[in-house]
Amino acid sequence: MNDTQLSIVFLSGACRSWTTSISIDERSYLLERLFVAEPALPGVIVCEGDKRLGLLSRRVFLAALSQAYGREIFLSRPLRELLIPVRLQTLLLSEHVSLSTACRAALAREEVTRFEPLLVNVGGQTCIVQLADLLLAQAAALERTIALKNEAVERSTKVAADLQAALAEQHQLASELLDARNLAVHDALHDPLTGLLNRKGLFAEVASRTKSGLDQSGRACLLFLDLDRFKLINDSLGHHAGNQLLAEVARRLSAIALDCGRANCIAARHSGDEFVLLCAACDGEAEVMALAQAVHRSLTAPYMLNGQSYTVGASIGAVACLGGYQDFELAMRDADIAMYIAKRSKDRHIVLFEPSMHKVVERRVALEAELRQAVAQGEFRLHYQPIQDAGTDSVFAYEALLRWQRPDGLMTAKHFIDLVEETGLTNEVGLWVMRTACRWLKSIHADGHAGATKVSLNVSAAQIMNINLPEQMARICQEEDLDPAHCIIEVTEQSAMVDPERAALVLQELKRLGFSLALDDFGTGHSSLSWLHQYPFDVLKIDRSLTAEVGQPGGSSKMAVGILYLSQLLGLRVVAEGIEGQTQMDALHRLGFRLMQGYHIGRPQPDWPAPSIMTAPAPSLSGGAGQTLSA
């Protein structure tokens, strides 16, 4: 290989190059902005004054970002402090080093990958390039070399020995050129993390199988898969663990594709935590559902991440027959819509596409746009529902419940809270809820009502994974001049199970700062008594499913009484939820329950005239007490 020619190709701009640099004394948040603003940027040159210290790749930065200390702390510190323990896994070349020799040696030593950026000095100029681009530049140089060799062969026909040597070298160069081209094509069509086909590769594979791009026999089916709450895993455990999870998902999908036969089944990574399985031989919806159920069982089996076992959910959308589609893009769209419906369903993880689903998605898109506008225009409201102390007929606390005041009426949180999480507004809305509730509670205290009354606030799974949540909540209490002892922070067991260790740290810090803690909806999901002594809870809220039969003819109260007894032994206060009638309330009181909540005691409303229950309770209504931010 002629390295001089390769340098000319490289410096002429035949391959992409970047020259972005940053001072080692800059704050980390500036580097994050660079990577967000330039999605194609593989790295930056780190400088100290006029001296170039080396190259910081996007992958190294993300690895540093996933370290144990908090994200906000990380982003506020200078690169000089944070990059000392990080080994810069890049290759520094100079104009005196053979590019082909250095690149191959680095790949052989596994110091770099084809997808890692390199800092190259050629002819006094410094550029940042992807190694894959260098290989393409090498291929272009080889092409030019072949052309030059052809001319040399024509000029040296007089010497047979020289001709034979030139031809042999030409064949070798042609072989290297073919290898480089094949490698570049493979990299363009495959996902570097999982090794599966990427979206471009999937469409290319489908197009290569039939002229129309689809199986016209009607037996082909398409599964569109998405991991549930992958972002929480990725943010809480770090990008390295997230990449581990994605690689293992790809391995499991590849195993399923292999069982189905490679000629009949294609696995691909669409984007992020979305995957696609295209099978060319599925007879009817029953067989498609059986395949989807097998995929779901495989993907929801436990994963070992950072030495611990974690379980994630999966939502699957399916198109049972591709024979009616003339465009594979439309089939992908419909499978994505079905997956969208499955992801928002509480009882279905697998959904077969139906044409009527288009309207559901259109409504969802419109609602998301309205939600963003609602945040900007302050359309959220809080309603408060009392928790009564039956022993004194006073209010123990008010639970703050989120509502959206729309032009067409009031919407409860269960209809939009998942959109709040998807749009990344969880923390913003959650802190607004706390500040608003604190101001309301302070106002009723100022009106001369009982100062011992508390306000109960729900936090979602995304919030409990935020290591800075305790500090943010304490700052709000300080700014609003309200003692944290007046605030009860409610979490559900399912929310804390995303990352039990991090949840424990957040809860312990909230407890240290003076907040009371409540375990909500106990009796649903996994409900383990071990949570009651492993975490610093003060209050246990028993779900309505365990209190509904109390006081009813033939109804059982054993489970509710047992939980009450054990909770009292652990020093916990117990709230019975779902109180819908006086008979039920009296029966629970006789069993030893004092704190109760439900529509019979009081429905959620914007304000209460006094921190005591009205003499005439609201009429009994079916349904729960409403949805909160963690709904």
From TrEMBL:
Annotated stretches, region: Disordered: 608-631
EAL domain span: 364-618
Gene3D superfamilies in the record: 3.30.70.270, EAL domain (3.20.20.450)
GO molecular function: cyclic-guanylate-specific phosphodiesterase activity
InterPro entries: Cyclic-di-GMP_PDE-like (IPR050706), EAL_dom (IPR001633), EAL_sf (IPR035919), GGDEF_dom (IPR000160), Nucleotide_cyclase (IPR029787), Rev_trsase/Diguanyl_cyclase (IPR043128)
Pfam families: EAL, GGDEF
GGDEF domain ranges (all copies): 218-355
PANTHER family: CYCLIC DI-GMP PHOSPHODIESTERASE PDEF (PTHR33121), SIGNALING PROTEIN YKOW (PTHR33121:SF70)
NCBIfam families documented for this protein: GGDEF (TIGR00254)
Protein name per UniProt: EAL domain-containing protein
